[in-house]
Design brief:
Order of helices and strands: EEEEEEEEEEEEEEEEEEEEEEEEEEEH
Bound molecules: cobalt (II) ion
CATH superfamily: Jelly Rolls
Number of strands: 27
CATH class: Mainly Beta
Helix content: under 10%
Strand order of the largest sheet: 1-14-15-18-25-20-23-2
Number of domains: 1
Distance between the termini: 39 Å
Structural class: mainly beta
Shape: globular
CATH architecture: Sandwich
Largest sheet: 8 strands, mixed
């Protein structure tokens, strides 16, 4: 986080909200309770994003078993840990401890088997996992992995007092921790004081959404309350988004360039065709996923 106070990006035609979505309570891994904010039914609309899970609980029974060894192929997972500690280990020999505002970016590529296990027996565990698709030509690439502590994540404060963490992409001239050429993901965590506004330019055609995890905001005159996802319309003349905080608020702003490729998903495998899914299942069963 730097101490520069950056002026707003000028937006002439802000995007309106196309649709508000409420996540679904579910559980995954070894019984971790979470809210699936972006589910499979939104994959086409929010291409290149495949999933967004929000987890948050003060009850260890809701998270303590974590996510024991499981495979992935064909996409990237971005885990953003707001509070709590999670130990990560994978088949490529990577290991890391994710905590307190840290991000883990994992490119599964042709295959990873990993575990994500909480390292605490009490207290709050809160965070997000976003799944970002890989273009067809990169689905069988070598796995890649990086951990970023909160201090390593680029950030800035706007003139209006909005604190911005740039996990991916670029905002107000500040480049994020990770950039990707094909999907050009933008992933911002915004902490907005009540009454402040934040503007962000967005390329036409990029799919974009806002998830409010504290407080409430207004976007183009429509209010978005806590735990609501606002899908932003892809108007051809729109050049960005304007977010106004109606209370102290914390939101994720996520956008990316759609791949417009077929999506074939079976659980933790996301490929382009059913045949590639069978291949992934066979490779996993026969121990060839990570070789
Ligand atoms: Co995983």
């Amino acid at each position: 986080m730097t101490n520069t106070f950056l002026p707003s990006e000028a937006i002439q035609h802000p995007r309106p909200i196309e649709r508000l979505v409420v996540g679904t309570a579910t559980s995954d891994g070894a019984g971790v309770k979470l809210t699936r904010v972006v589910a499979q039914s939104l994959q086409r609309r929010l291409d290149p994003f495949l999933m967004l899970d929000a987890f948050g609980s003060q009850n260890p029974d809701d998270y303590i078993a974590g996510f024991p060894d499981h495979p992935h192929r064909g996409f990237e997972t971005i885990t953003y840990m707001l509070a709590g500690r999670m130990r990560h280990r994978d088949s490529a020999g990577h290991e890391g401890l994710l905590e307190n505002g840290g991000v883990q970016w994992m490119t599964a590529g042709r295959g990873v088997i990993h575990s994500e296990i909480p390292q605490q027996e009490k207290g709050v565990m809160e965070g997000f996992q976003l799944w970002l698709n890989l273009p067809a030509r990169d689905k069988m690439s070598a796995p890649w992995y990086r951990d970023f502590t909160a201090a390593e994540l680029p950030g800035f404060v706007t003139e209006a007092g909005v604190a911005v963490t740039v996990i991916a992409g670029a905002s107000h001239g500040v480049t994020g921790a990770v950039t990707r050429a094909t999907t050009a993901p933008l992933y911002l965590d915004l902490h907005l004081p009540a009454g402040s506004r934040f503007t962000q330019t967005l390329p036409v055609g990029h799919n974009a959404f806002v998830y409010v995890y504290r407080g409430a905001v207004e976007i183009a005159g429509r209010s978005v309350s806590t735990q609501h996802l606002a899908i932003l319309a892809n108007d051809e003349q729109a050049d960005g988004v304007v977010i106004e905080a109606t209370s102290d608020a914390k939101v994720l702003l996520i956008a990316g360039q759609p791949l417009n490729e077929p999506i074939a998903q079976y659980g933790p495998f996301v490929m382009n065709t059913e045949q590639e899914i069978y291949q992934a299942l066979n490779d996993f069963r026969e121990g060839r996923l990570v070789t």
